[in-house]
TrEMBL record:
Residues 293-317 are annotated as: Disordered. Pfam families: Carn_acyltransf, CPT_N. Keywords: Acyltransferase, Fatty acid metabolism, Lipid metabolism, Membrane, Transferase, Transmembrane, Transmembrane helix, Transport. This is Carnitine O-palmitoyltransferase. PANTHER family: CARNITINE O-ACYLTRANSFERASE (PTHR22589), CARNITINE O-PALMITOYLTRANSFERASE 1, BRAIN ISOFORM (PTHR22589:SF55). Residues 174-483, 522-618 form the Choline/carnitine acyltransferase domain. The chain crosses the membrane at residues 50-71. Residues 294-317 have a biased composition (Gly residues). It comes from Mauremys mutica. Coiled coil: none annotated.
């Protein structure tokens, strides 16, 4: 009742003497501050959209151009060669305007059209320049004269002071490789894996596909590449990730190492306070789009570990960790920044047939897990972000809280570690109302998830190798229902006593322990994973597979196991294999890979309800998750039975 009483902004009672109205000034202040923050964010987003929308030009450049055109008009010069006069004649309500007013409006209209034309030209020129990838085949540190000229042009058209998403509209679209190239490279990659008879069959199927069904499927992909921003990304996210029914751990999880040899403070709450505050400062820069391309940033780091989130048990939460993730190659070539949009305030919600992504523009709390218990920790007080010292005090309250977890609460997050369908059904059955729904909502709507571990992690013990393995496993999956603390940031610093710097506000509400009503069911298992190359040189580019098992790499491996081969022969084969691998990697990064193209051709074939022996017999190329997701495409698309 106390919390509800504090939440009411005003109270009134009706009596014979009239209405007694009592206002809660504290509550009204919070309402005012919330509204003020909301409007500030709207204005910031509008300003950023304007600045990004005209980049590589700037609104200030329009003012300069308009001033120059008006000055020329005042000097009786006509840089428009008569166009301003024609614009004056067609101005609305021109009969009610004086001649100087019409001349000024005509000059401003001409300046605006000229400025927009320059914006479109600069953006188109930059996009055309970014389609060149010949630099990737040159020796590092020794660019050709053509590449040097190209880099100079990129710098000229790249503009000044870019924001996080300034280059998105200038990035080229991912090209659709020719079917003949994809089939040829696929067969080349399969040659060392198949016997002669099986390879001959695969080659025959490939040639038949290239002549018959391939061009028809390719036409649809080409049409999609013209219409959509990226012909792969939406299908890849939908059918590979969201419709994949296998466990996210360890198929999608990844991790970043903490400091191995440095312990800035022995106080766990202090480290957590600095980490969370630093991440929130980064989130604020991200929301304002003030992260500059070229300066790098933090890569996404899953920080979940609770029902609906996954985290260590499913990698469903967005988060951040210290580490480089440059947005531009060598400070010159921009890369796609779309992945930053859902780094925070994002949850992957399980579904029976397909998951969905839930993203909030803002979140004012985080979820914390410690000793089998879940807590909700507010991040703001009195309209301001909590400082490191104040966050440390909140985390210390959690560490000092002696309350035991509710029965089953300690391993509750393991539900997210299993296949998606059982977790989706359990979520629908047991988390749809009451305390469970409220607590799950607090976890899912958090900015990110933090675990305060009960055991020390790191490079510990007399055997560094095994200690590193244990540390990596703890980072990757922990105990399948928890997650270790995140990395630290030195810039905030600590006091001589190891505590975070700053003062405490004693009026900050304490963390709120989440309540659960838990049944007896629970389970999970592990699946495979894969390695990929990035395609972020293209707009909304994601990944492509590098088929490193080539004829050249197989020859090198055989030489290493053949005692008759000399060191010189092995070295020569190694260099050939390495050169081949570099070629494959460059192809993958520049849109000439084969796996995503084959995947999209397969999806189109299912949309059309046609069967391809070439695509069907080699469906294993897509991996276990994709096979599972694509098995029932016909039913999903309501296609008639074949």
């Amino acid at each position: 009742m106390a919390e509800a009483h504090q939440a009411v902004a005003f109270q009134f009672t009706v009596s014979p003497e009239g209405v007694d109205l009592r206002l809660s000034h504290a509550a009204l202040k919070q309402v005012y501050l919330a509204g003020l923050r909301s409007w500030k964010k709207k204005i910031t987003r509008l300003r950023n959209s304007l600045v990004t929308g005209v980049f590589p030009a700037s609104p200030a450049s329009w003012l300069v151009m308009a001033a120059a055109i008006l000055a020329s008009q005042a000097s009786r010069l006509d840089p428009s060669m008569g166009l301003i006069g024609k614009i004056k004649e067609h101005l609305p309500a021109s009969a009610y305007l004086s001649e100087p007013a019409r001349a000024g409006l005509g000059a401003l209209a001409f300046a605006t059209l000229l400025w927009l034309g320059l914006v479109v030209t600069m953006r188109g020129a930059l996009r055309a320049l970014l389609c060149y990838h010949g630099w990737m085949g040159e020796e590092h540190g020794r660019p050709s004269h053509a590449t040097k000229c190209w880099l100079a042009l990129v710098k000229i058209f790249a503009g000044r002071r870019p924001m996080l998403y300034s280059y998105q509209a200038s990035l080229p679209r991912l090209p659709v490789p020719p079917v003949s190239d994809t089939v040829q490279r696929y067969l080349e990659s399969m040659r060392p894996l198949l016997s002669d008879s099986h390879f001959q069959r695969a080659a025959a199927l490939g040639r038949d596909f290239e002549r018959s069904l391939g061009p028809r499927l390719q036409w649809y992909l080409t049409l999609k590449s013209w219409w959509a921003t990226n012909y792969v990304s939406d299908w890849w996210e939908e059918y590979v990730y969201l419709r994949g029914r296998g466990p996210l751990m360890v198929n999608s999880n990844y991790y970043a190492m903490d400091f191995l040899y440095v312990t800035p403070t022995p106080l766990q709450a202090a480290r957590a306070g600095n980490v969370v505050h630093a991440v929130l400062l980064y989130r604020r820069l991200l929301n304002r789009e003030q992260i500059k391309p070229g300066r790098g940033g933090w890569g996404g780091h899953p920080t979940g570990g609770a029902p609906g989130q996954g985290g260590r048990s499913g990698a469903e939460r967005g988060g951040a960790s210290a580490g480089g993730c440059a947005l531009m190659i060598q400070g010159t070539l921009p890369m796609c920044s779309a992945q930053y949009e859902r780094m925070f305030n994002t949850t992957r919600v399980p579904g029976v047939e397909a998951d969905s992504l839930q993203h909030r523009r803002d979140s004012r709390h985080i979820a914390v897990f410690h000793a089998g218990r879940f807590f909700r920790v507010g991040l703001y007080h009195g309209g301001r972000l909590l400082g490191p010292r104040e966050l440390q005090a909140q985390f210390q309250r959690i560490l000092d809280d002696p309350a035991p977890p509710a029965p089953g609460e300690e391993t509750l997050a393991a539900l997210t570690a299993g296949p998606r369908e059982p977790w989706a059904r359990a979520r629908r059955t047991y988390f749809g109302s009451g305390r469970n729904q409220d607590s799950l909502r607090a976890v899912e709507q958090a900015a990110f998830f933090l675990t305060l571990d009960t055991t020390e992690q790191g490079l510990l013990g007399p055997e560094p190798g095994r200690a590193l393995d244990r540390y990596a496993k703890a980072l990757l999956h922990g105990q399948c229902h928890d997650r270790p603390p995140m990395t630290d940031v030195f810039q905030l610093g600590y006091g001589a006593d190891g505590h975070c710097k700053g003062e405490l506000d004693p009026s900050i509400p304490p963390p709120q322990k989440l309540q659960w009503e838990i049944p007896e069911e629970d389970k999970g298992k592990f699946c495979l994973t894969y390695e990929a190359a990035m395609t972020r040189l293209f707009r909304e580019g994601r990944t492509e597979t590098v088929r490193s098992c080539s004829i050249e790499s197989c020859n090198f491996v055989r030489a290493m196991t053949d005692s008759a081969q000399s060191a010189a022969q092995r070295l020569a084969l190694f260099r050939v294999a390495a050169a081949k691998h570099q070629t494959l990697y460059r192809r993958a990064m520049t849109g000439a890979g084969i796996d995503r193209h084959l995947f999209c051709l397969y999806v189109v074939s299912k949309y059309l309800g046609v069967d391809s022996p070439f695509l069907r017999e080699d469906a294993h190329r897509f991996g276990a998750n994709i096979r599972t997701a694509l098995l029932d495409l016909r039913a999903l698309f309501n296609l008639p039975p074949k």
